[in-house]
Design goal:
The protein is mostly helical. It has a single domain, classed as Serine Threonine Protein Phosphatase 5, Tetratricopeptide repeat (Alpha Horseshoe). α1 runs antiparallel to α2 and α5 packs antiparallel against α6.
Amino acid sequence: MFIEAKGKLNAGDASGAVQGAETAWKTFPEPKFGWDVSKSYTHALAKIFRDTGSFPNAISLINELFASGTVKPHQDGPRFVMGTIYFEMDDLENSIKWFREADQISKGRCFQGEDKKYHEFYKNRTAGK
């Protein structure tokens, strides 16, 4: 369902993408954050919220993930996703904070396979620091 929602987003159907992703999330069994794929699904939904400009929903979802107690200190993914949300909101101070945490945990691997704009921004803002 998340793949279909992403397809709708790519086709320009933002509301269909959000609706599809939220439907998929609702079918995920409770406890939502207690499953081995919870973070992947959470990231997918948060990215759809981010990419459709539903920033408060994206931040709320990632905050719920952190509040669940399931994010381990060595997991950079949720931190990186939060950094991308703040970046897209143009809240660059918070974006740097979250990217820095993800970068320190992953030793730079968090940027691999992601949109290059995030890494370029981070490098330019932290060069020489």
